[in-house]
Amino acid sequence: MKITEPEVRYVAGLANLKLTDSEITRLAKDMDDILTHMDALSELDTSAVEPMAQVLYQSEETATLREDQPVPPLGNEIALANAPLAGAGYYKVPKVIER
What are the sequence ranges of the domains in the chain? Predict the structure, then answer.
């Protein structure tokens, strides 16, 4: 097995997820299956495949990207104008993560 249940528990803890033992077991198997599949893909010969720098590209009338148009930034006063609570140039929000 490429990934163990303690590793799944560790990652779940980092993501602040509360998982049951059955979910941990299922996720460990699913993640192991994914990693096994990735190993199989890494064995493919891609030496003849030309690398792509970007999927979207400019090409005359069929261009898929627009030109950048610079705009001035909002500034703190306008950005915070509708904030329910602001202070020192920042939004103030209630604490949502407790550890």
Answer: 5-42
